[in-house]
Predict the 3D structure of the following.
Amino acid sequence: MTKKMLDDFTVVDFTHVLAGPHCTKMLAEHGAEVIKIEPTGGEMIRVFPTLKEGRSAHFVQHNIGKKTVAIDITTPEGQKICHELVKQADVVVENFAPGVMKKHNLDWDTLRQLKPDLVMCSISCFGQTGPLSHLPGFDYIGQAYAGIIDLNGERGRPPVFGEYAFGDLSTSTHAYAAILTALIHRMNGGGGQYLDICLMEVLFSYHEMNVQLFDTTDGEFVCERSGPSHPLFAPIGIYTCKGRYIFIIGLGHSWDSLMKVIGREDMLSDPRLADVSGRGKHTDEINAAIEAWLDTIEDVETAVAILQEKRIPAAPILTIPQVMELEHTKERGMVRTVSDPVFGTVKIPRTPMRFSQFPDSPDLQAGMLGQYNHEVLRERLGYDEQQINELENTGVIGSKNI
Amino acid sequence: MTRKHVLDGVKVIDFSHYVAGPHCTRLMAEAGADVIKIEALHGDSSRHLPVMKNDRSGYYIQHNRGKRCLGLDLRTQEAQDICHSLIKDADVVIENFTPGVMAKYNMDWAALSKVNPDLVMCSISCLGQEGPLARFPGFDYIGQAYSGVMGMTGQADGPPALSGMAFGDISTGAHAYGAIVSALFHKANGGGGQYLDMSLLDCLFSYHEMNVQVYDASGGALVPKRSGHQHSFVAPLGLFKCGDRYLIIVAIGPQWVNLCKLLGKEEWIDDPRFADPVIRNENRDEISEAIEGWLATIGDPDKAVKILVEDNHVPAAPVLDVPEVMEHPHMVQRGIVQTIDDPKFGKVKIPASPMRFSEFPEPLNLQASGIGEHNAQILMDQLGYSAEKVAELTGAGVIGSKDT
């Protein structure tokens, strides 16, 4: 049998909502045994849509492949179970607000005593230190503080935010990557360590030029939201074609090809438009020329096909159903179907890491609340039925079919 | 022996350019890997992106510190031989050309896995290595458009809006880094080498934390649409104006109760119309009105954030612009902005790597190199070429360098 990449690794998972669960989902998909510790009432996203018979498809998407155990970690008995599990584990992941793990005797200083070569990763909105660290955070809070939301929307109009949680999900990828790196370091004799990963820093790293532009122009350049067109370069932006939208990028050689396609060779010899910066000063004029051409084209698909054949980067701006129906998406299996005892099946995005040795996404299900209480306590920790029943009766552990 | 960082000893041959690939190898260099960047004789195109100073690009510096540079003409047999020799002894190869280009240079997985069966090779592309769209040229925004991400950004009644930063490229670079270290881990455990096909499209699409399942599990009844400054499915989650600034307020968890009390709407706590974030969304105008009314009585955005977050634990934040982020005391204390002292450019500020390892709290001191700056060093010290041979290859245009 082929071993999966993280076979034989155990993760104790104290995460909830998104940024943590997506990280431990990836660990599970790559073969690790993930024991997810939840409060006995279930974690927050178990009530998020879509709901069916009390079951959340949102929870399913981010928690496939984990053994769900529901423990009240505010009790000494609950903490004792957690400590016993951590002693046998390789990795601990958590995403509470800083300080919560310490309150429950589950912080790094406590856990490293129990398991010196542990890799522990905390994921938070603002990081474990600094004046904002103790504040509650969500994806959009991190986006606001990282200067991201300010850059979305029309110039002179209120900012907008994108309705997808790239802050949470991509921070969890950074956490996954940091954990794997730390495991490599441990394997090379470097021992365990603590990882402090936060949304604000991950999101801030997405400014591929704004920080150095502001800094090296001595504050002369301050990036602003610019609606459908790029603030600096042209043509880069969103154009209208028969009531729908298309994205076109005419940089480098594509500038020449684009002007030929739209029948505006005259622009190629215009000295004002000789380079990228010059063209960026005449965005409106260039955009008008492109829109005039688009008016003569039948529809977005035709326009995209014409441009792509000339190797000009272009794309239709798709809705979610359109993405899911796209031939390319289907051929690559970008949408995967997972099975669930309540929903039957649920479609979710495929985890984007593709390994040639493991081409298929593993068939994993999300646990019901506390589904693995008995198995984990009995098989990993050697508790007998009587002990388990007592923990159940005192409310230290619990379960529910959601 | 003390290890200098977590990826100490890992050898990377880097054929990448622009952002998505270079960001991945930047993360590897910052984690202590030995990265050799292979560039065409005219250099990575991003060497011309702003800000330019002394013929040096601040953009290039940000994404290419800590890499040794080899400038060569990949079309020549000699250059391909040099690459194969380096790859024989390497752990990782990374590239982000349009699919098909590496094969043209005898550098595709089929060729390289014969040169080094234990190799981990990672290709990063916009739309993936196969499928009907794979051959088309791509950039971050093309991936955003095809993934449905761009369509979800903007006012409900207006056109979509593009985001002013390259989160598709940078976060795909981070995914690639994550996949590479997984594969290295597998290799170290005896699993052998393998090929990784990373695309912006896959990564961006994975950011739909609910849009795909909501559409599917509702049987198509719920179609996710951009909704500007209020979330489509849960409330309250949105942007609200206070004085001259926008605030984001997210009260979808237990903090809802605190918000009700703060707004003087205790009666909402047990009102079935506001029972959970989804039901509340049906009555969100009423909630927004109450929030806006309260914000108007406060007037000062800093004060409003303090009352919401510090005093009542309701998640909220001011929408900051980039200079404000750079000067914020929290970012300053955590060192999120890193100052690089480039030999040609001088000082330049960039975002620091977001991965923090307790064993290595200080970033390595790394600089960006010129085109082909390490040609002689790599060919002579690593591959045993003579000085005469290096001169001959330079004369023939197989290798070259430029101080840029």
The first strand of chain B starts at residue 11 and ends at 14. Residues 51 and 344 of chain B are 13 Å apart (CA to CA). The radius of gyration of chain B is 25 Å.
